[in-house]
């Protein structure tokens, strides 16, 4: 059973380049279907990496930014329990 998949012109061009490189390196002609099946099969083995590639990029704060942020906090001399914080945040 074959199903069509729409790809951008850029992706189509990359598939064609991969086909050409495979032909040059191995002497074998592969179809784009074979190439896509291999890519999906190989990617399926590392699903976590593939899924992570769709996550938003996270850029951690620099040491200077962390220091600047922490410099805005101060000790009021009052002990606060986790329960008190939960009550304020989530209500009783």
Which key features would you list for this structure?
single chain; 92 residues; mainly alpha; 5 helices; 0% strand; elongated
Which helices and strands appear, and what pairs or packs with what?
Layout: H1 9-26, H2 32-44, H3 47-52, H4 63-70, H5 82-90
Question: Gist?
Answer:
This protein is mainly α and 92 residues long.
User: What pattern of helices and strands is seen along the backbone?
Assistant: HHHHH
Uncertain segments: none
Strand content: under 5%
The share of residues in helices is 55-70%
Q: Characterize the overall form.
A: elongated
Note down, in words, how this protein is organized.
This protein is an all-alpha fold and 92 residues long. The chain has a domain at 7-55. 59% of the residues lie in helices and 0% in strands. The chain is built from five helices and no strands. It has helices spanning 9-26, 32-44, 47-52, 63-70, 82-90. The chain is elongated and about 75 Å long.
């Amino acid at each position: 059973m074959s199903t069509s998949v729409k790809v951008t012109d850029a992706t189509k061009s990359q598939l064609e380049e991969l086909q050409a490189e495979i032909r040059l390196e191995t002497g074998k002609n592969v179809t784009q279907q074979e190439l896509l099946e291999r890519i999906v099969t190989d990617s399926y083995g590392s699903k976590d990496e593939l899924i992570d590639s769709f996550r938003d990029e996270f850029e951690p704060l620099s040491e200077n930014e962390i220091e600047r942020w922490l410099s805005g906090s101060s000790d009021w001399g009052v002990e606060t329990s986790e329960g008190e914080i939960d009550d304020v945040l989530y209500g009783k």
